[in-house]
Write a structure and sequence with these properties.
Elements: E1 5-6, E2 10-18, E3 33-37, H1 52-58, H2 60-64, E4 76-81, E5 89-91, H3 95-100, E6 109-116, E7 122-126, H4 132-140, E8 148-151, E9 158-161, E10 167-169, E11 173-180, E12 186-189, H5 205-211, E13 219-221, E14 230-233, E15 238-251, E16 256-260, E17 265-268, E18 275-276, E19 283-285, E20 292-304
Antiparallel strand pairs: 1-19, 2-3, 3-4, 4-11, 5-12, 6-9, 6-11, 7-8, 7-10, 9-13, 14-15, 15-20, 16-19, 16-20, 17-18, 17-20
Length: 306
């Protein structure tokens, strides 16, 4: 594989989602879409009869580098979320708990804010001094949001959400989420909402309270280090925000995923046809593709493995 690969998004309906996905997608769905999965196992590679799961299993050396073994799953799950209502108050397990209970792994994640309307909020952690016992009582009463510490995000903010963080998203946001490939979620409080069949949505209080911590290191993060645009580095992924204004930045050789959010960005290199990038479509650069340059005007996430 000598050229970048483009993954086709998979759209996931959610009762808190949106029917207007512009400007990222032109589709006008007939049911609310909560998440566009950009690098799910089921995403197909544009122009190839191949999913990302098959790619990770069958072309690991080309994709990840010499000596890298086949993977059971694509190692990064990247999404765009479109909440128009509150998500449930929820928590994700760490690797140890997830694997001990039959799941493939835990879920640590980060959010990069693409749009934030006035009054939009993100809940991270319990308020100082609040306990898990108080949380349980509040969840049973449908009032757990009152116990969360709320933040007012701005466009271009980035938040880190490690496993074990009690959290919730409010309406009026569009954000890009980068996470471990596992999507295990324990719903603590859904405020009495019902699904499309009229059934109360299931809560997972036993598992959720077993992994929840009153307060973690979750919160807003900024650029750090000496690398261009580096925002976050944890044990599962590294994320840089690239902002170009008619300029260019070198993209080193090695496995990575570029996620552009605007028109006007392209990948180039000598003796290769420039590849225009589509907004909200993941561009996967295999290790075997070598170095490239990102040129043009726009914003993108550059996501790599640690």
């Amino acid at each position: 594989m000598e050229a970048p690969l483009i993954a086709e998004p998979v759209f996931s309906p959610r009762l808190w989602g949106s029917r207007d996905l512009r400007p990222f997608f032109a589709e006008r769905p007939d049911q609310p879409i909560g998440e566009a999965w950009l690098t799910a196992d089921s995403c197909r590679v544009l122009g190839k009869a191949l999913t990302l799961k098959q790619l990770a299993a069958e072309a690991a050396t080309e994709l990840f580098g010499p000596g890298q073994p086949a993977q059971d799953t694509f190692p990064l799950l990247i999404k765009i979320l479109f909440p128009t209502d509150f998500l449930s108050v929820q928590v994700h397990p760490d690797d140890a708990y997830a694997r001990a209970h039959g799941w493939s792994g835990g879920k640590t994640e980060m959010w990069h804010i693409l749009r934030a309307e006035p009054g939009a909020r993100i809940g991270l952690n319990l308020l100082p001094g609040k306990t898990l016992e108080e949380l349980l009582a509040a969840c049973r009463a449908g009032k757990s949001r009152d116990l969360l510490e709320w933040h007012e995000p701005r466009e271009r903010d980035t938040f880190f959400v490690p496993a074990g963080t009690i959290h919730a998203l409010g309406p009026g946001l569009v954000l890009c989420e980068v996470q471990q490939a596992s999507d295990v979620t324990f719903r603590l409080d859904d405020f009495g909402r019902r699904d499309a069949q009229g059934r109360l949505r299931e809560l997972h209080l036993e598992h959720g309270l077993a992994v929840a911590r009153p307060r973690t290191q979750a919160g807003r993060v900024g650029r750090h280090g000496n690398e261009e645009g580096m925002v976050l580095e944890c044990e599962y992924f590294r994320v840089a925000v690239l902002e170009l204004t008619g300029t260019a930045v070198a993209i080193p050789a090695g496995f990575r995923v570029l996620v552009p959010f605007t028109e006007g960005l392209r990948l180039t290199r000598a003796q290769s046809t420039p590849l225009p990038l589509r907004p909200a479509h993941a561009a996967i650069l295999p290790a075997s593709a070598g170095p490239w340059r990102l040129e043009g005007t726009g914003r993108a996430l550059d996501v790599t493995l640690p």
